[in-house]
Amino acid sequence: MNKKELFERFTYLEKQFGELYQQFGELKTNLVQIIEENHHLSVENHHLRKRLDSETIKEEKQNPDNSLQSKSQVVGEGYDNLARIYEEGFHICNTYFGSPRAEEDCLFCIDFLNKNQK
Ligand SMILES: [Zn+2]
User: Which of 35, 56, 79, 91 has minimal Cβ neighbours within 10 Å of its Cβ?
Assistant: First the structure.
């Protein structure tokens, strides 16, 4: 390898490094966005759960006789939501929860749905 070739290789590698560095920067920005979004969703989820709990308690105080019925209704709705999420193409099983599902059925998800069916 002569000096000119060596120099050209260095220049090429330098360019590659620059592009890689830029891609790392972009990935890092995406990662930060995802972490922030995840944090916001966790906070929102926490608030919604608290609100659901207090609404449920309020409802039970108003209708003590219906408390058992309304609880089984909530369970039923939870099941419907999970079934819908699954139909929309996402995993609801513990193993892959929330990740996009391939076309074929997931045995873990089916098992989970069957266990939670009323
Ligand atoms: Zn699954």
Answer: 35
